[in-house]
């Protein structure tokens, strides 16, 4: 499998340089044992409570783009602490990315409490999605009952003057949807890949792709 090595220390003090070097070497050894191909080594000096880390976003973009298959860390606290750790566990789980740690000598074993929190987060997210979709559906039905004809928006839509049809890899969108990413997350990924598109455009083109 292709893997990303993620190393982190909490401060930029010189004394932490040894810790980063030790983490990197430990993970390289583990990758060699499991015959993983290392595609990226990310090292950061930042608090684990902070989710706004360049390395984290770089890591998630690589996973979203299908350029790596698993993550190697020294232990779960290197990925994050507190709510940040849970949020990253949830995001990686949605991307179907297994986590391997040096301390477990294999795949990460979540604690019972962390597993329970992730289940709750997943349930809440699903119901939020259902509520959002229901609101949209109710709004459309109300507009139709008030005389709105949605078919008018489809007339000559490919001949709209002054607007160029944006191109982006719809196959990648389809792949990410199968991994249960939201359209907002997919749009963010595409923007990071250099495709300037909106969530509405991604959603509409995805529907066209599956209706053809």
Report on this model:
The structure is a single chain. It contains 8 helices and 5 strands. Strands 2-1-3-4-5 form a 5-stranded mixed beta sheet, with helices on both faces. The protein has helices spanning 17-33, 54-64, 76-79, 82-94, 112-145, 170-178, 183-192, 199-211, and strands spanning 2-9, 37-45, 70-73, 99-101, 106-107. It is an alpha/beta fold.
User: How much strand content do the residues show?
Assistant: 5-15%
What overall form do the CA principal axes indicate?
elongated
Number of DSSP strands? 5
Class by SSE composition: alpha/beta
Radius of gyration: 21 Å
For the biggest β-sheet, the strand order reads: 2-1-3-4-5
Low-pLDDT runs of 5+ residues are none
End-to-end distance, in Å?
Answer: 34 Å
Helix content percent band: 40-55%
Mean pLDDT equals 83
Tally of alpha and pi helices: 8
For the largest beta-sheet, the strand count, sense and barrel status come to:
5 strands, mixed
H/E element string? Answer: EHEHEHHEEHHHH
């Amino acid at each position: 499998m292709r893997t990303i090595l993620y190393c982190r220390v909490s401060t930029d003090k010189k004394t932490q340089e040894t810790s980063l070097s030790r983490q990197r070497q430990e993970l390289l050894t583990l990758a060699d044992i499991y015959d993983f191909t290392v595609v990226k080594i990310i090292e950061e000096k930042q608090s684990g409570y902070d989710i706004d880390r360049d390395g984290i976003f770089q890591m998630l973009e690589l996973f979203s783009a299908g350029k790596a298959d698993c993550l190697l860390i020294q232990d779960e606290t290197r990925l994050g602490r507190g709510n940040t750790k849970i949020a990253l566990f949830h995001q990686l789980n949605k991307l179907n990315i297994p986590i391997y740690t040096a301390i477990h000598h294999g795949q990460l074993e979540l604690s019972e409490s962390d597993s329970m929190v992730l289940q709750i987060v997943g349930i809440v997210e699903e119901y939020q999605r259902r509520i959002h979709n229901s609101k949209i559906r109710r709004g459309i039905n109300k507009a139709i009952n008030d005389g709105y004809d949605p078919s008018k928006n489809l007339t000559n839509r490919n001949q709209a003057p002054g607007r160029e049809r944006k191109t982006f890899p719809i196959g990648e969108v389809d792949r990410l949807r199968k991994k249960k990413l939201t359209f907002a997350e997919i749009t963010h990924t595409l923007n990071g890949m250099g495709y300037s598109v909106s969530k509405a455009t991604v959603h509409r083109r995805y529907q066209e792709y599956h209706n053809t």
